[in-house]
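User: I'm new to structure prediction. If I give you an amino acid sequence, what do you actually give back? Let's try with this one:
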Amino acid sequence: MLDFNATQAAIRAGYSQDTARQMGAENLSKPVIAEAIQALVKKRSERTQVKAGQVVAELVNLAFVNIYDLMRVGDDGNPYTDLSNLTPEQATAISEFTVADFKVGRGEDARQSVGASDYPPFLSGTLRVALSLCE
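Assistant: Good question. You get back a string of structure tokens that encode the predicted 3D arrangement of the chain. For your 135 residues, that looks like this:
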């Protein structure tokens, strides 16, 4: 089970591109194949120790991260990064944290940059793959 895609599985099994979709669907309706798939899903779930609910919860954390949870605005009106109250769930959404020293006008300063996961494209493909790894 590579991608939980019956058409692609049919092609890998030797069916032509023209008939793969029909044969994939037909094969899924066969009890012996359906049972084999269920057994493989169960085995994979036991091996990874990950449940579908855990995967969905983690992806929900990524989908609903709010930049205001990571940033504050100082008295001077400038934004700054504040990770002091960051929860583990919020931390999973951070893809990058950079602190760079640079000179601007009046002297040395430091700039912080936080990058959140680019979740829409990430979630679309990842949800399908992640759920295929668990039951």
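You can read the tokens as a compact description of the fold. Here is one thing that stands out. The helical segments are 6-12, 20-28, 31-48, 52-63, 88-91, 119-132.
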